């Protein structure tokens, strides 16, 4: 192939326009810090940053004039977004300049009295005094830290702080930890790092309720993959099927929208498996060589076990599946045929919120389809992620106080008993704090989370917060949770601070993004990461030793040294250069670009990211780190956990109970989802679904008028929350478009405007997560917990609608 | 002379509204506020419309982002009594905010509803604005300008560097942002450019073509087969 | 106060000028209240912007443009009707023309004012002159309305000269005012001849101008490509509508002044019968145009047109559309077909109905098209705010006030034309009649006269 410069650029951007655009932005990126526009009066500097409006991890270029932000665009070098962005990214401008931002630390007058501004020194000494005091009283473990959706060194820092200080209670309030392997992947493949869905190369994508183009792991990256699936020079138009009770924008763009009864995805997946097997369309070679538990088998003791195949053929006949899921038999068959014939096919079953009470087995059932079509460890399927070669940090120093604290059980019980498999269980937090079980909480830190708005147990949590004598929030805003705090130490917003992002869930590459402050901080705020270091220093001793960096950027620098020394990967650079390196690397050469770490660090800051694009040819065996070294339809790992739990706690132990009891026998370890018996509609005939709007940033976006004004295109609403109802359902209730209605559940009722939307199952109503005015759907959602994720079940609640 | 145009691939477009917000940020288009928004006064130079499935009312079939189409024979400019909107020699239909008398005749005449009126004083100097774009007073009409200021900047830069404007050096904010790369912008008069090539695609169509407005924003429908065209 | 000549002939015509009663002040006070409302409304709008109206995207034209078209339409009452009547030498015109002409002049100011009220930047009004762009129908409007206004003022003024002279000679007050305006009128034969010629010329001149005015008003709509606007018959359709509403307005004005100023002796049922018949004809003509317009739209059936069409017929605008059909056609027909008894009451009913109907017609032309855009934006509804109602009320009040004030300075019925009618008209008519008739015996003539 003759490689022209233009050709190179073309591949990168997909089009010459894109390429030229990238070239143009590059000039800017490269010249960042230099006097690019000599003729312009204010000094224009373009600073790379990282978008923090969702977990997508896109790279930004922030245009600043004399330190004031004057625009945001995508970083064309950044491998995740390649210069493009989503609507939320632009809301960042309004977030930064929100006039309601906290201008500095606030403390209370007396017992939860009025807020008054305080100096940082005073505020910090208040925290240190409290923390020292608790530690002195051997109550270090009664400090709980609640963290939201973020990752990278901020997570590292908090984790280290908790470990050095001595509390086991660093609790993350979220249901999708992108930096961790999915539970189903862990159980069925034994992996310990996240698998990446290779969306960009798949030719057929079947998504079970992942909001690919709106939410999930990053809509920009997924949109680019989608665009490639739709139209690219090298391959025919791919196919895309979206299973979702709601005809979301993602479903609209799909070739087929499969409206499903919420929570029955596992059954549908098994129905598809049934059709695949029956028609002999599954990947027989893969199944034979790389899987365990497909056929009937005998264990060491010679006892027979039913295999996946027989189970599926016996239990999940298409008529049964169709009746339970509401999906026509013909559709099931057609999906199965597509799956069996279009390669590579990718099945996504890791949406954020749970699929309902059978979540774990549902995810296993969906993932088993990936094995059936042999999409594990192939391009366009599921791929392993390389680890980021960040420099390892010295082990945390733990003094006696720390060890004592860490020896205590977590307040939320995660990692033991019924929450054995959950890393965090925020759902039970309120109840545990209220009952001081196993101990009362004496101090609570809130970092980047607002559980009093976003959690189904928000009312209970509010009461629990009343019981906590000392609450510190780091929010830059006065939200539902921070307004309950005793002390607010406002963080910088993301355009004002040093930060990193570590993205590991993308197929084919790993990526470390680095951002230095783009804007001069507007107010007396401080990067919470720096504040944590300051607190550690003030607490002294082993805590200070464990967190001995002066500033957060020192820590980032220390970690990034590992990237420099890894002798692989690159600081992102124009595509032509990168391709050349890639070619060389395939031939076994890796040429260092930088003479010193300082040069490397400098370039990293100027270009915004490091990545390792070389796809390591990982053998399928390497992906199967289970005891059998195979993909396990029958999870021996889960079996072992259960056996251990039984040994420890007996057959009626909480973990076993959480799994549905020993009675299920082998079904516990297989992807088997019980087919529910038909239910009477009863008092609450409708199902409630909450979902994320593309325009909704994490944090809600209350302060971002552009996004509030045009939140959606599938319904016309503005500034105000709404509930989507099928026109037929609405007609039955006598409800007209934009009329006020009461949405009532057994837990409570809220008043919203009705939007008639034909793109839904008629028996489901939908309330978007949206920062606009209006009450919260979490006031309706039943407090049910998913023991494997420790989070609430968000789509099992039933409601009725009445005209208001 | 260049003839600036845009191709929007509806097969790729996901209706995400990145283009909408990118445009607002680039062109200092303010949010009008809750009260005004419910009254239907949102200003959105780029707007994502939805097309319904035939025979299935309410079921959305596809998304259709709509900037000003920069008609080559624009019905809006003809009716303006004061020359406050006109087609420039490179085909860009522009607005002169300082001259507009706010009669809204151009709005009534635009078959694509691409023009927006400042019913009140929505725009105020505020931090975070793009200094390259002026802030509009109340009482005047505004609309997508194909990010005309970017052309001026790119030209200036090229001139300072003593060279010609390179293809692709001038690109609109919406095209730049679009994550699905559904928007391609460039010079329609250069037959080798991507826009020109895509505009010749068998999938290409123009909105309300029968009106003879000759829009320079060209859409591509869905369709099977390889390739971007 | 000038002494009234009791028993003087045509005393009733001088009365309003000579005497001003409590009723007048009462009416003026009420009108002032409305004008105040309009004034406050405009002030608020000027400060805040057009945001205080109900207008929005996509309905960017509403009340003001409707009122503009409506008022300009009414203006055809006058000059056009009076000119046609004059030219056709309809003798019964004599007590009618003045009132008609006054309507035209007054209402033109109000009508043109609507456009100014509608501007987003009234402060830049002069740009129309500085940067005027003749491709824009708005400029055609500006031109032809100014021409019409000028011509109408002249056309109103000319036949007023002899009356002003009468007032100059008769009244004690405002001597200077009348003297100046009378231009030294003595009533000499030469002056009379010149005046008659001038009036005749103006009458011929104003007809094409009037026709052009409402044609170009219609062009504001029909020159765009919008569904149900882009129509070739809009010009004549608007002109017919204009004359239609003009006659109705004239009738209403006549009935009001007849009652208020006791002009029963001048404005007799016959006048109303004739005008009623004219109104009936216009109603039929209007119906014909409407029918033709909607039928072609319906037959063509392009989706965009049909969207607007159904929005009017069965959609959100049905009350307006069917209201228009009722008030512009059904009610006038029912009232006017047989004008046996209760002529005046019936004609009044029909006229008021037509005034409402023609306003609705303008509204139904302006708004539904805008609220049903070609592209899928969803329909926009539109409802005016207190500001727009205020402007409407204020406009009507201002018009009424202008009119009322006029009647306090000048006779609403042309005194000299009435006198002329008495003196020369009768003879002239008889002569003229004779010229029409086939030559025949006196007996036949008498017979014919009896039958007709
Ligand atoms: N724009 C945006 N992106 C985000 C976030 C955000 O707030 N805004 N938050 C981030 C976070 S924290 C998370 S956890 C992820 C979540 O990412 P997603 O899981 O993609 O997000 P959701 O919108 O909650 O759910 C996706 C879809 O699942 C559908 N659904 C609901 N119940 C069922 C069911 O039982 N079966 C099936 N098949 N579908 C169902 C919903 O209708 C919805 O369309 O998104 C991340 N990305
Ligand atoms: N009904 C329903 N409820 C749900 C879900 C659902 O799908 N349906 N999804 C659940 C899921 S998956 C998640 S992850 C949670 C998310 O819920 P939360 O964990 O509460 O996360 P956010 O909404 O992102 O709230 C982030 C908060 O952090 C603060 N913040 C914003 N920016 C910064 C910053 O720069 N620094 C600091 N220190 N703080 C900042 C703000 O106060 C903001 O309110 O919601 C859950 N709740
Ligand atoms: S996908 Fe997420 S990270 Fe990327 S631009 Fe959008 S909000 Fe920002
Ligand atoms: S940004 Fe691109 S994909 Fe998103 S709505 Fe606009 S054109 Fe469509
Ligand atoms: S789309 Fe409308 S505003 Fe744009 S040029 Fe065409 S007619 Fe004018
Ligand atoms: S609103 Fe302004 S731009 Fe539009 S026609 Fe009137 S003067 Fe021209
Ligand atoms: S071309 Fe520029 S002005 Fe027009 S819609 Fe796109 S971003 Fe907005
Ligand atoms: Mo989440």
What is the CATH topology assignment of the domain at 195-384 and 629-635 in chain A?
Dimethylsulfoxide Reductase, domain 2
Distance between the termini of chain B: 25 Å
Q: How many helices of chain B?
A: 7
Number of spatially distinct domains of chain B: 1
The helix/strand class of chain B is alpha+beta
CATH topology of chain B: Alpha-Beta Plaits
Backbone CA Rg of chain B: 18 Å
Distance between the termini of chain A: 68 Å
* Ligand types: ligand MGD, iron/sulfur cluster, molybdenum atom
Give the overall average pLDDT of chain A. 90
The CATH architecture of chain B comes to: 2-Layer Sandwich
Q: Biggest sheet of chain A: strands side by side, in what order? A: 5-4-19-18-17-6-7
Architecture overview:
The complex is a heterotrimer of chains A (804), B (229) and C (452). By secondary structure, chain A is α/β, with parallel strands linked by helices. Among the domains of chain A are: 2-31, no CATH class; 195-384 and 629-635, Dimethylsulfoxide Reductase, domain 2; 686-803, Barwin-like endoglucanases. Chain A is built from 28 helices and 32 strands. In chain A, β1 (44-50) and β2 form a beta hairpin. The N and C termini of chain A lie far apart (68 Å). Residues 1-23 and 25-40 of chain A have low confidence and may be disordered. Chain B is of the alpha+beta class and 229 residues long. Chain B has a single domain (4-226), classed as Alpha-Beta Plaits (2-Layer Sandwich), CATH 3.30.70.20. Chain B has helices at residues 18-26, 34-38, 75-79, 105-109, 148-160, 173-177, 194-199, and strands at residues 4-9, 47-53, 56-66, 85-87, 93-95, 116-117, 141-142, 183-187, 204-205, 217-220. The longest helix of chain B is centred in the C-terminal third of the chain and has 13 residues, at 148-160. Chain C has 452 residues and is mainly alpha-helical. Chain C has one domain: Formate dehydrogenase/DMSO reductase domain (Formate dehydrogenase/DMSO reductase fold). Chain C has helices at residues 11-18, 22-48, 63-87, 97-118, 127-130, 137-157, 161-170, 175-182, 189-222, 234-260, 269-300, 303-313, 318-336, 343-371, 386-409, 415-436, 442-451. In chain C, α4 runs antiparallel to α6 (137-157), α4 (97-118) packs antiparallel against α15 and α11 packs parallel to α14. The interface between A and B is large, with 76 and 68 residues. Bound molecules: ligand MGD (2 copies), iron/sulfur cluster (5 copies) and molybdenum atom.
């Amino acid at each position: 192939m003759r490689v022209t410069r233009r050709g190179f650029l073309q591949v990168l951007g997909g089009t010459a326009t894109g390429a030229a655009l990238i070239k143009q932005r590059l000039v800017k990126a490269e010249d960042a810090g230099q006097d690019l526009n000599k003729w312009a009066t204010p000094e224009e500097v373009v600073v790379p940053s990282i978008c923090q409006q969702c977990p997508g991890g896109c790279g930004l270029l922030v245009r600043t004039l004399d330190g004031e932000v004057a625009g945001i665009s995508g970083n064309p070098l950044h491998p995740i977004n390649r210069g493009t962005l989503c609507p939320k990214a632009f809301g960042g401008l309004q977030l930064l300049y929100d006039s309601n931002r906290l201008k500095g630390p606030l403390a209370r007058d007396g017992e939860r009295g009025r807020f008054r501004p305080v100096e940082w020194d005073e505020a910090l000494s208040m925290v240190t005094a409290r923390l020292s005091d608790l530690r002195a009283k051997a109550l270090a473990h009664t400090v709980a830290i609640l963290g939201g959706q973020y990752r990278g060194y901020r997570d590292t820092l908090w984790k280290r702080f908790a470990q050095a200080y001595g509390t086991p209670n660093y609790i993350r309030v979220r249901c999708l930890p992108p930096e961790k392997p999915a539970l189903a992947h862990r159980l069925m493949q034994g992996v310990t790092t996240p698998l990446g869905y290779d969306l960009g190369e798949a030719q057929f994508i079947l998504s079970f309720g992942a909001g690919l183009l709106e939410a999930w792991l990053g809509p920009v990256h997924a949109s680019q993959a989608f665009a490639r699936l739709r139209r690219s020079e090298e391959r025919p138009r791919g196919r895309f099927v979206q299973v979702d009770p709601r005809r979301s924008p993602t479903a609209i763009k799909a070739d087929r929208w499969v409206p499903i009864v919420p929570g029955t995805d596992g059954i549908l997946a098994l129905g598809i498996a049934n059709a695949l097997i029956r028609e002999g369309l599954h990947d027989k070679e893969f199944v034979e060589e790389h899987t365990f538990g497909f056929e009937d088998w005998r264990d060491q003791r010679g006892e027979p076990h039913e295999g996946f195949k027989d189970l599926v053929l016996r239990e999940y006949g298409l008529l049964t599946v169709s009746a339970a899921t509401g999906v026509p038999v013909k559709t099931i068959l057609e999906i199965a045929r597509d799956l069996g014939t279009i390669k590579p096919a990718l099945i996504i079953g890791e949406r954020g919120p749970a699929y309902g009470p059978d979540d774990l087995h549902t995810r296993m059932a969906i993932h088993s389809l990936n094995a059936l079509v042999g999409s594990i460890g192939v391009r366009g399927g599921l791929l392993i992620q390389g680890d980021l070669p960040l420099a390892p940090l010295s082990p945390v120093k733990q003094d006696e106080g720390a060890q004592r604290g860490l020896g205590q059980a977590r307040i939320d019980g995660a990692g033991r008993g019924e929450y054995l498999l959950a890393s965090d269980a925020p759902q039970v937090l309120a109840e545990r704090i209220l009952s001081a079980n196993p101990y009362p909480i004496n101090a609570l830190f809130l970092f980047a989370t607002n559980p009093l708005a976003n959690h189904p147990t928000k009312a209970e949590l509010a009461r629990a917060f009343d019981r906590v004598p000392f609450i510190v929030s780091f929010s830059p805003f006065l939200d539902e949770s921070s307004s309950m705090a005793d002390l607010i130490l406002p963080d910088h917003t993301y355009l004002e601070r040093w930060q990193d992002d570590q993205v590991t869930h993308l197929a084919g590459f790993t990526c470390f993004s680095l951002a230095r402050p783009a804007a001069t901080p507007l107010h007396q705020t401080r990067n919470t990461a720096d504040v944590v270091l300051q607190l550690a220093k003030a607490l002294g001793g082993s805590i200070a030793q464990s967190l001995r960096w002066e500033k957060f950027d020192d820590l980032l620098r220390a970690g990034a040294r590992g990237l420099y020394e890894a002798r692989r990967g690159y600081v992102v650079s124009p595509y032509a250069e990168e391709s050349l390196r890639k070619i060389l690397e395939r031939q076994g050469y890796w040429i260092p670009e930088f003479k010193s770490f300082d040069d490397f660090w400098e370039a990293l800051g100027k270009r915004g990211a490091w990545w390792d694009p070389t796809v390591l040819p990982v053998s399928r065996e390497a992906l199967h780190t289970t005891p059998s070294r195979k993909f396990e339809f029958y999870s021996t790992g889960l079996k072992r956990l259960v056996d251990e739990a039984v040994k420890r706690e007996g057959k009626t132990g909480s973990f076993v109970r959480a799994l549905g009891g020993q009675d299920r026998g082998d079904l516990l370890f297989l992807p088997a989802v019980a087919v529910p018996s038909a239910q009477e509609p009863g008092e609450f005939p409708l199902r409630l679904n909450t979902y994320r709007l593309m325009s909704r940033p994490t944090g809600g976006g209350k302060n971002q008028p552009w996004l509030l004004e045009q939140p959606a295109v599938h319904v016309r609403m503005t500034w105000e929350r709404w509930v989507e109802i099928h026109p037929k359902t609405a007609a039955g209730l006598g409800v007209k478009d934009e009329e006020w209605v009461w949405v009532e559940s057994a837990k409570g009722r809220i008043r919203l405007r009705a939007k008639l939307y034909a793109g839904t199952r008629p028996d489901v109503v939908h309330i978007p997560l949206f920062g606009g005015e209006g009450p919260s759907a979490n006031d309706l959602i039943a407090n049910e917990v998913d023991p494997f994720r420790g989070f609430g079940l968000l789509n099992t609640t039933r409601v009725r609608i009445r005209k208001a | 002379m260049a003839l600036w145009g845009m191709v929007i691939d509806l097969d790729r477009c996901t209706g995400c509204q990145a283009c909408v917000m990118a445009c607002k940020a680039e062109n200092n288009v303010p949010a009008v506020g809750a009260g005004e928004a419910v009254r239907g006064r949102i200003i959105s130079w780029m707007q994502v419309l939805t097309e319904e499935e035939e025979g299935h009312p309410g079921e959305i079939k596809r998304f259709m982002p709509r900037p000003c189409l920069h008609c080559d024979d624009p019905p809006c400019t003809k009716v303006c009594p004061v020359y406050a909107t006109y087609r420039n020699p490179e085909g860009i239909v522009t607005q002169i905010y300082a001259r507009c008398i706010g009669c809204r005749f151009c709005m009534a005449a635009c078959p694509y509803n691409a023009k927006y009126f400042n019913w009140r004083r929505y725009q105020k100097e505020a931090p975070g604005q793009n200094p390259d774009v002026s802030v509009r007073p109340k009482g005047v009409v505004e609309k997508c300008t194909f990010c005309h200021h970017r052309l001026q900047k790119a030209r200036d830069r090229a001139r300072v560097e003593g060279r010609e404007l390179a293809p692709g050096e001038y690109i609109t904010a919406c095209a730049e942002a679009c994550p699905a790369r559904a928007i391609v912008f460039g010079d329609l008069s250069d037959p080798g450019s991507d826009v020109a090539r895509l505009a010749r695609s068998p999938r290409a169509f123009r909105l309300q073509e029968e009106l003879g407005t000759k829009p320079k924003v060209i859409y591509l429908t869905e369709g099977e087969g390889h390739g971007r065209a | 106060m000038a002494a009234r000549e009791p028993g003087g002939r045509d005393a009733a015509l001088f009365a309003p000028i000579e005497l001003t009663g409590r009723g007048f002040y009462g009416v003026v006070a009420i009108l002032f209240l409305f004008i105040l409302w309009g004034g406050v409304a405009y002030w608020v709008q000027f400060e805040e912007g057009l945001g205080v109206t109900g207008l929005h995207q996509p309905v960017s034209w509403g009340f003001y443009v409707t009122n503009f078209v409506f008022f300009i339409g009414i203006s055809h009452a006058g000059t056009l009707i009076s000119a046609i009547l004059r030219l056709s030498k309809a003798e019964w015109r004599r007590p009618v023309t003045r009132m008609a002409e006054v309507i035209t002049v007054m209402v033109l100011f109000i009508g043109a004012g609507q456009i100014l009220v509608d501007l987003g930047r009234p402060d830049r009004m002069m740009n129309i002159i500085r940067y005027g762009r003749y491709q824009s129908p708005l400029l055609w409007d500006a031109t032809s309305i100014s021409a019409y206004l000028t011509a109408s003022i002249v056309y109103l003024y000319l036949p007023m000269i002899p009356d002003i002279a009468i007032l100059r000679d008769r009244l004690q007050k405002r001597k200077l005012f009348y003297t100046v305006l009378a231009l030294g009128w003595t009533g000499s034969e030469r002056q009379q001849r010149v005046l008659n010629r001038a009036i005749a010329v103006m009458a011929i001149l104003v007809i094409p101008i009037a026709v052009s005015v409402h044609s170009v008003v219609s062009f504001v709509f029909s020159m765009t490509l919008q569904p149900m606007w882009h129509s070739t018959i809009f010009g004549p359709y608007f002109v017919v509508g204009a004359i239609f509403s003009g006659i109705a307005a004239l009738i209403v004005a006549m009935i009001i002044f007849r009652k208020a100023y006791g002009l029963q002796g001048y404005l007799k049922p016959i006048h109303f019968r004739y005008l009623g018949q004219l109104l009936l004809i216009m109603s039929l003509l209007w119906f014909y145009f409407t029918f033709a317009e909607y039928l072609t739209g319906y037959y063509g059936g392009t989706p965009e047109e049909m969207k607007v069409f159904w929005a009017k017929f069965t959609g959100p605008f049905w009350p307006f559309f069917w209201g228009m059909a009722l008030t512009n056609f059904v009610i006038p027909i029912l009232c006017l077909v047989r004008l046996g008894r209760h002529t005046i009451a019936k004609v009044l009913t029909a006229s008021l109905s037509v005034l409402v109907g023609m306003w609705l017609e303008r509204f139904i032309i302006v708004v539904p098209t805008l609220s049903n855009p070609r592209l899928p934006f969803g329909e926009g509804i539109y409802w005016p705010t207190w500001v727009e109602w205020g402007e409407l009320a204020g406009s009507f009040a201002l018009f009424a006030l202008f009119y009322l004030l006029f009647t306090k300075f000048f006779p609403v019925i042309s005194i000299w034309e009435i006198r002329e009618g008495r003196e020369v008209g009768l003879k002239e008519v008889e002569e003229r009649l004779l010229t029409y008739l086939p030559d025949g015996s006196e007996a036949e003539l008498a017979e014919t006269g009896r039958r007709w």
